[in-house]
Amino acid sequence: MIENILNGKEQSKIVLIKDTLEQSAWPLATCYLKSLSNRFDQIHLLCFDIPPKMFKNVLPEETLLHCTFHDFSCDPLGWLDNGHLSVKDTDILSYLQKDPILSNSYSQGQQVTVMLCSLTNLIIHRSPSYTCRLLKRLTDTHTPPFAGVTVGQVVSLVHSDLHSDQLLSHLGFVASSEITLQNSFSSDTTLNCHIRHHRTTGKILQIKEQFRLSPNFELKDVIEQKSAAVHLTTDDNQPDPTANLTFNLNLTDKEKKDRSRQVLPHIKIQNTPQEDETKSGGGGQIFYEPDDADDFDEEDPDDDLDI
To answer: What's the N-to-C CA distance of the chain in angstroms?
Structure first.
């Protein structure tokens, strides 16, 4: 599943990758960038806590040609006042709409993608609602954020160990695919992940997979992790709770036979009408005697109708 999401076989507008301090999503994001460069004309990478040089040092030249880096990590709070982008003060969508690559005429009709590394700084310094609105606004098909340019996919990272489960669930509602990285104790190069994916048909898939990233940040050896069956074991040495009771809860063979022959009250009531009908030879009849207070109208209620 993770391979199909990365290469675009499984369509997904918003992909959320959740990592932790022990298991960083930066290697997987680097692998994702190489796949995105083969599918989209331009990649806009918003670096909030990962410096762009970390990607530039490992990505091949053909991938870098498709990447446009926006560095928000140098001065995220605007303390230096040196003209750098600020996470706290810069409106992300307005900034991207003024970007020369997105606003020039030669980019009309292009397919672009946006990657945010990571959402944690936006959530902390702006608000969770601002972050969720930004993700939805970037992928809005009714009122596209960029004239003539289609945002095919938005990929975002978030540090899940820094946020509450309630906030992460809100992000999960916005995302169409959610990849949760999990610690792998078997090997340093093997990664485990839990994937929740919304297909365009409305079906929701949940799957656990194990994969490996090569030194060139390529996805290798993807296998599905089957959930282990739970076997219930009985302990013969456990005490019998019915051993020391003053009454007996078990039935003898004779008592079981007597119980099976017993006719229950509701069975007897159900069988009684059938026996009466058999004896009478027909169905039942209803006799009604009107009371003195009953008021019967002798006139025809449909007399005024032309029938």
So the answer is: 72
Strand runs (DSSP E) across the chain, as ranges? 14-19, 42-47, 67-71, 111-117, 150-159, 177-182, 190-198, 204-213, 219-224
| pLDDT tens, residue by residue, 178-225 | 999 987 665 567 889 999 999 988 899 999 999 998 889 999 988 988
Domain range for residue 44?
Answer: 2-224
CATH number reported for the structural domain that contains residue 58 in this entry: 3.40.50.300
pLDDT tens-digit series, residues 225-270: 876 554 555 556 677 777 777 777 788 888 888 888 887 776 655 5
For residue 136, what are its two tokens? 């939805």
Q: From residue 82, how far is each of 53, 65, 75, 293 by CA, in Å?
A: 19, 28, 8, 99
Residue 149 lies in a domain: yes
In a domain, 126, yes or no: yes
Specify the number of domains making up the chain.
1
